Amino acid sequence: MPPPHKVAPPPQKAASSPHKAAGRNRRGRGSAKARRNAARLAAVQVLYQIELLGAEPEAALTEFLQHRLGHEVDGVSYVAADPPLLSAIVRGASVRRADIDGILSAALDPRMPLDRIELLMRAILRAGAFELLAHAEIHPRIILSGYVEIAHAFYQGREPGVINGVLDHIAHRLRAEELSRPEPRGDDPED
Predict the structure, then answer these.
(1) Inter-CA distances, 17 with 54, 142, 157, 163, 180, Å
(2) SS3 state at 125
(3) FRET label pair with 145: which of 94, 152, 154, 180, CA 20 to 30 Å apart?
(4) How would residue 29 be classed by pLDDT, with cut points 50, 70 and 90?
(5) 162 inside domain
(6) Which alpha helices (H) appear in 54-158, and where do they start and end?
(7) Confidence band of 112 (pLDDT split at 50, 70, 90)
(8) Per the domain annotation, does 170 fall within a domain?
(9) Sign of CA dihedral 56, 57, 58, 59
(10) Beta-carbon neighbour count of residue 7 at 10 Å?
């Protein structure tokens, strides 16, 4: 159990583990792809902590980098995530939060405003929307897949479908031309 001043990510609701979503292996290491997926998961956890506690993004990010990534926590070894990607997502989603929230609000059903969506879902959506907006070097389908996989690690119900639908809507709005082409093979940064 984390010390009282730290907030653990919300409990998982699905049978699969968020560590599986991050590509964890027995030694806590992983492939480059697994480290990027671990960075996405960690970014979601940091964004969740920022919103839940009202924490400053830099403080929450530093705490996560120093005390969680590549460490064993509660008997679980975490994949050593890609720190530059983790930092870019957390900082970018925090700095551009108003823009990202506007993009998300435009993609959501008006009956489901962003401020009424659960904190964890908002964290997943903000991280995914930021990557779609800022990481043009990564094919949008790879980004979508990564965040839907994270959603499945926490949810069993309709939430992963909602996250997929919202992020897909944003991807079509921001990067329609790329979506019309197949994902590149071999030289893709996610391979």
Answers:
(1) 26, 20, 15, 18, 32
(2) helix
(3) 94
(4) low
(5) yes
(6) 57-67, 83-95, 97-107, 119-134, 140-154
(7) confident
(8) yes
(9) positive
(10) 16
What per-residue string of b and e applies to 69-84 under the rule 16 or more CB within 10 Å gives b?
beeeeeeebbbbbbbe
Secondary structure letter of residue 184 according to DSSP: P
Domains held by the chain: number: 1
The Cα angle at residue 71 between residues 68 and 74, in degrees rounded to 5: 80
Would 12 be classed as within a structural domain? no
Q: Which residue has the tokens 């903000």?
A: 126
Domain holding 146, by residue range, is 18-179
What CATH number does residue 28 fall under?
1.10.940.10
Pairing of strands 72-73, 76-77: antiparallel
Question: Residue 73 has what DSSP assignment?
Answer: E
**5 domain residue, yes or no:** no
122 pLDDT more than 80: yes
Question: Could you give the CA distance from residue 42 to residue 9 in angstroms, rounded to a whole number?
Answer: 9
